C-alpha cells in the first residue's frame, strides 16, 4: 500500500485571487508581516500496490483528473505503508 | 523570512464528499487500486520575521481564519528562508 500526498498550486504566471483575498484578510486581522499567500489543493490518496510504477500512476492521475495542467502545477510525496494483518 | 506550508483536512469523523467524488472518478478512469481519497486545502505563506514566535502566529492564523476548527484539522511546516540583499 502507498500513502500519496499531492500538492496542487497555480503556476507562478497565473493570478491567484484566492491567495490575494486570504492575504488581505490576514492583514485585516493584524498579521501585517504576511508577505505572500498561495492557495492550493491537497490530496491524500491510499493506493494498493498492483506492481505498476506508482510514480507513473500518480502522474497520470494528476494529468488526467486532479490538476488542470494548463493553469496548475503539482508535486507529490509517496510513502510505502506496510499493511498489517487486519488491514 | 519564513516560508510556511499549511495543510488543512477534514477531521476523520467528518464525511468528505469531495474525497468520495474524486475516488469514484479515479475508479472510472480505471484506477481501481485507489482505496481512499482525502481532499484538503493547502497554503504557502511567506511571513516576515518580526521577532514573535512563528509557531504561535501560524496557529492563530489557522484558528482565526484558515481552518474551520469545528470540522477541520491542520498541520504546518516552517522553513526559515535567509533573505538575500535584493529581496
From TrEMBL, chains A, B:
A GO-annotated cellular component: cytoplasm
The enzyme's E.C. designation: 6.3.5.3
Localization terms from the record: Cytoplasm
Keyword Cytoplasm attached: yes
Gene3D superfamilies given in the database record: Phosphoribosylformylglycinamidine synthase subunit PurS
Family from the record: Belongs to the PurS family.
Coiled coil: none
One annotated GO biological process: 'de novo' IMP biosynthetic process
An annotated Gene Ontology molecular function: ATP binding
UniProt name for this protein: Phosphoribosylformylglycinamidine synthase subunit PurS
Summary of the function given for this chain in its UniProt record: Part of the phosphoribosylformylglycinamidine synthase complex involved in the purines biosynthetic pathway. Catalyzes the ATP-dependent conversion of formylglycinamide ribonucleotide (FGAR) and glutamine to yield formylglycinamidine ribonucleotide (FGAM) and glutamate. The FGAM synthase complex is composed of three subunits. PurQ produces an ammonia molecule by converting glutamine to glutamate. PurL transfers the ammonia molecule to FGAR to form FGAM in an ATP-dependent manner.
Signal peptide segment: none
Main location: cytoplasm
Functional pathway: Purine metabolism; IMP biosynthesis via de novo pathway; 5-amino-1-(5-phospho-D-ribosyl)imidazole from N(2)-formyl-N(1)-(5-phospho-D-ribosyl)glycinamide: step 1/2
SUBUNIT field: Part of the FGAM synthase complex composed of 1 PurL, 1 PurQ and 2 PurS subunits.
Gene from which this protein is expressed: purS
InterPro entries (alphabetical): PurS, PurS-like_sf
Keywords assigned by UniProt, alphabetized: ATP-binding, Cytoplasm, Ligase, Nucleotide-binding, Purine biosynthesis
Catalytic activity: N(2)-formyl-N(1)-(5-phospho-beta-D-ribosyl)glycinamide + L-glutamine + ATP + H2O = 2-formamido-N(1)-(5-O-phospho-beta-D-ribosyl)acetamidine + L-glutamate + ADP + phosphate + H(+)
